[in-house]
Amino acid sequence: MISHAVWHWKQYFRPLYLEDRGACLFGPVKRCFEVFCIYCQSNHVEEPYVSIIKKRQMPRNGLSEEIEREVGQAEGKLFTHRSAFSRASVIQAFLGSAPQLTLQLYISTLQRKVTITRCFFMVLSLLSIVYGALRCNILAIKIKYDEYLVKVKPLAYVCIFLWRSFEIATRVVVLVLFTSVLKAWVVMIILINFLSFFFYPWILFWCSGSPFPENIEKALSRVGTTIVLCFLTFLYAGINMFCWSAVQLKINNPDLISKSQNWYQLLVYYMLRFVENAFLLLMWYLYKTDIYMYVCAPLLILQLLIGYCTAILFMLVFYQFFHPCKKLFSTSVSEGLQEWLRCVCCDCRRQKSCESVGKADLRSPADIDETPSSSKISSMPSEILNPNEFCSI
Question: Of 76, 144, 189, 258, most Cβ neighbours within 10 A?
Answer without folding.
Answer: 144
